[in-house]
Amino acid sequence: MDLDTALDAATAILSDFDHLVRVVLSGRRRNMETPALRIDIRPIQLKSGRFLQVMSNDGVRTTTKNFAPQDPDVLAFLASGYANILAESTEESISIRITKKGEALVTATKGVKAQNLSHDRSKARLLDPSDPFLIEVGISDQDGKIKPSRQDKFMQVEEFLRLLVPAFNNAISAGQIQQPTFDDPLRIVDLGCGHAYLTFAAHQYLRAQGIPVHVVGIDIREESRKRNSDIAEALGISETIEFRAEEIAATKNTKVDIAIALHACDTATDDALAWAVINEATLILSAPCCHHDIQAQLSESPEPWNLVTRHGLLKERLGDILTDALRVHILKILGYRAETIEFVGGQHTPRNLMIRAVKTNAKPELGEIELYQNMVSSWKVHPALANRLASKMAEIGVK
Ligand SMILES: C[S@@+](CC[C@H](N)C(=O)[O-])C[C@H]1O[C@@H](n2cnc3c(N)ncnc32)[C@H](O)[C@@H]1O
Q1: CATH no. for residue 306?
Q2: Is the shortest distance between the CB of 265 and ligand 1 below 6 Å?
């Protein structure tokens, strides 16, 4: 479909107040300026009449303005430089992506959607399943519905964000993180980002909240870097999100305020935590994945723990618990306030524990180093995280 025909189809949906569900404009076309970072338009019914509610996010804040239906100023937004246009009516949806060459890639789908004219719809969800980024990363289908096979990942990402945002706000209020600006944005590094569901979600969500942000996704796999970078390009956000194919431990010259890691495999979680500590991340949120490190070292257990470790399954679970308990304790004695929390319901993943840590620079409390030393010597284990942070541990007297 040529661009004019595609824009006419979107205009037809936006002009038909009785059937309009919403229009979302995002991303920037090459060499074009847009009036705002993202615009959401939807029909609303107020006492004074029917309006088109236009919510514009300029990267700092969202402003809302109501216009008369079919106001030419609103219709003009469709051709105002956006690369992604989603127009939904009660009967059909049309998704337009305008390429660098100015061609329109159009997906049109039929289907019944409900119109909601209330002006203050409460948002149970942080992420809109039809947000173009969720379609691009493959969590949602072309109709903007979460794919059944991706429901769990969607929930994990959304719940992870639900914890990230207040942790960030608290750190700002406590003066631990400076208020981000466009010149000095909030810096987030996602370690072991894989298909970057969380990486994109953090970027898009925080930007939609008006928080200037720069996000880096690290994964050892080149194909992940390529795929994720192509998606960032398609979404028109490659200036503020970047992907690198490298080992976490080899990642250099990267400023960080918040380090995140979702299910970085086995000791990649230790790589992520160690990297965050060495690079002085203020906040660390990490949901570990499989644990083999301590499990593999549990050859002898201090008595009477043989009562547990003689059972393979229990030994495995105990290994997981010891690994995470030691990780949290290491963070604690190295100047973080650290804890474990459940970040998502167990039905969405058995790996639903999160280590949350905030840098306080507090010295270890009396007895905490001895507690650590007793623990590792009685279990005869050497946590991978302690090995990676050997020089920091030595500074506080732990060999
Ligand atoms: C289980 S996946 C999780 C991906 C993503 N965070 C998510 O939740 O969908 C773990 C990812 O970590 C990456 N990874 C494992 N070890 C790594 C290392 N040492 N450095 C960088 N990436 C690593 C893998 O390539 C993989 O993509």
Answers
A1: 3.40.50.150
A2: yes
Ligand 1 binding pocket includes 200 (Cβ within 6 Å): no
Q: How far apart are CA 380 and CA 312, in angstroms?
A: 18
What number does the ligand 1 atom closest to the CA of 156 have? 8
pTM attached to this predicted model = 0.72
For ligand 1, mutation pick of 193, 252, 271, 285 (most atoms within 8 Å of CB): 193
- For the chain, what is the domain count? 2
Which atom of ligand 1 is nearest to 219's Cα?
22
AA identity, residue 161: L
Ligand 1 center to 210 CA (angstroms): 29
Please give the chain's pLDDT, 399 residues, in tens: 789 999 999 999 999 999 999 999 988 898 899 998 889 999 999 888 999 999 988 765 678 899 999 999 999 999 999 999 999 998 888 999 999 888 999 988 887 777 788 766 544 688 989 899 999 999 999 988 999 999 999 999 999 998 898 888 888 888 899 999 999 999 999 999 999 999 999 999 999 888 999 999 999 999 999 999 999 999 999 999 999 999 999 999 899 999 999 999 989 999 999 999 999 999 999 999 988 889 889 988 999 999 999 999 999 999 999 999 999 999 999 999 999 998 888 888 888 999 999 999 999 999 999 999 999 999 999 999 999 999 999 999 998
**Residues 109 and 186 occupy one common structural domain:** no
Do the domain assignments include residue 324?
A: yes
CB of 385 within 6 A of ligand 1: the answer is no
Between the CA of 198 and the centroid of ligand 1 the distance, in Å, is: 12
One domain for residues 356 and 261: yes
Segments forming the whole domain that contains residue 301:
149-395
Side by side, the strands of the sheet bearing 213-219 are 241-245, 213-219, 186-191, 258-262, 283-287, 353-359, 336-342
Give, rounded to a whole angstrom, the gap between the first and last alpha carbons of the chain: 67
Nearest atom, ligand 1, residue 247 CA: 20
Q: What share of the chain is helix, strand, coil (3-state, %, to 5)?
A: 35, 25, 40
Same domain assignment for residues 369 and 321: yes
**Ligand 1 proximity of 348 Cβ (cutoff 6 Å):** no
Same domain, yes or no: 90 and 184: no
